[in-house]
UniProtKB/TrEMBL annotation:
The lineage of its organism: Bacteria, Bacillati, Bacillota, Bacilli, Bacillales. This is Metal ABC transporter permease. Belongs to the ABC-3 integral membrane protein family. The chain crosses the membrane at residues 6-27, 34-51, 57-75, 87-105, 142-161, 173-196, 202-222, 229-248, 254-274. It is a multi-pass membrane protein. It comes from Paenibacillus septentrionalis. Keywords: Cell membrane, Membrane, Transmembrane, Transmembrane helix, Transport. CDD domains: TM_ABC_iron-siderophores_like. Pfam families: ABC-3 (PF00950). Its main location: membrane. It comes from the Bacteria. PANTHER family: ABC-TRANSPORTER METAL-BINDING PROTEIN (PTHR30477), METAL TRANSPORT SYSTEM MEMBRANE PROTEIN CT_070-RELATED (PTHR30477:SF8). It is found in: Cell membrane.
Length: 298
């Protein structure tokens, strides 16, 4: 594959993984947790590196999962103590992220870890960092990681589709019929964590947040059906990857930044044009309702 094709494939995989997980974040009204976990996984990555002195491997995912679960547990703990949910998220993620930044500056300065790279990412380097797979050949390590994470996400979503649907739309009813809502919550936090760390090195925290929240929010404007929402969100993530890449080439700017901007463009179009919840759709429905009322009155 060409250099550009590997970049587009990597970004598309990020879009699909984040798009699938992002739908559940939006439905559970946990969008800010995406921001929190995409930053706090830095602490898990740094601690995993300091323990193993290796910059790649399964230990990175383990560290990220632990950091993500720690974030969820601390946010829940503070909230139970009376701190507002938004304040709890802000306190936990800024503190854990700051610890990660300090550890990078003081303990991992000689490694390929830096704050700017963590925030913005550098997807242009992805095609050069390859691994040799049997029967396939050389493939970027980021692509391998993202494919494995996508398989895990799809398996978890498909195996427990009914449980995800019930706990997302009506957690009280789900708990009343015996679904372990708390366990599903922490399984979901684990999915968010591994998705974040798989995309972290490739595209950075900013694009991870954009891909987790914006395509799913756009999909939410188009449909009330979960399966269609998942498909639309994934599709919007892929569209944002391609649109952002060619926009970056045209403007000679950051690819990750352009892709994040593209997710915003897709949301604005959806906000205006979505047939039911978009501004235009609401206007048409409202006009039709008024005409029907007038016709009935007449």
């Amino acid at each position: 594959m060409s250099y550009a094709a590997w970049i587009l494939l990597t970004a598309s995989l990020v879009g699909v993984c984040c798009g699938l997980v992002g739908v559940l974040l939006i439905l559970r009204r946990m969008a800010m947790m995406a921001d929190a976990i995409s930053h706090t996984v830095l602490l898990g990555i740094v601690v995993a590196y300091l323990i193993t002195l290796q910059l790649s491997g399964i230990h990175m995912f383990i560290g990220a999962i632990i950091a993500g679960l720690l974030t969820a547990l601390l946010v829940q703990w503070f909230h139970q103590l009376g701190v507002q949910q938004e304040a709890s998220i802000g306190i936990v993620f800024t503190t854990l992220f700051a610890i990660g930044v300090i550890l990078i500056a003081t303990k991992a300065g000689n490694a390929h870890l830096d704050v700017q790279h963590s925030l913005m990412g550098e997807i242009t380097f992805i095609p050069w960092n390859k691994t040799d797979l049997p029967f396939i050949g050389e493939v970027p390590k980021a692509v391998v990681s993202l494919v494995l994470v996508l398989i895990v996400i799809l398996l978890v979503l498909l195996l427990f589709y009914k449980e995800w649907k019930l706990t997302s739309f009506d957690p009280v009813f789900a708990a009343s019929i015996g679904i372990p809502v708390g366990l599903m919550h922490y399984v979901f936090m684990s999915l968010v964590s591994i998705t974040s760390v798989a995309a972290f090195d490739a595209v950075g925290a900013i694009l991870v947040i954009a891909m987790l929240i914006t395509p799913a929010a756009a999909a939410y404007l188009w449909t009330d059906k979960l399966s269609m929402m998942l498909l639309l969100s994934s599709g919007f993530g892929i569209i944002a990857a391609f649109l952002g890449y060619y926009m970056a080439v045209w403007l000679d700017t950051s690819i990750s930044g352009a892709m994040a901007l593209s997710t915003g463009i897709i949301f604005i179009i959806s906000f205006l044009m979505a047939p039911r919840y978009g501004l235009l759709g609401k206007f048409i429905i409202g006009k039709a309702t008024r005409n029907e009322s007038n016709a009935t009155a007449g």
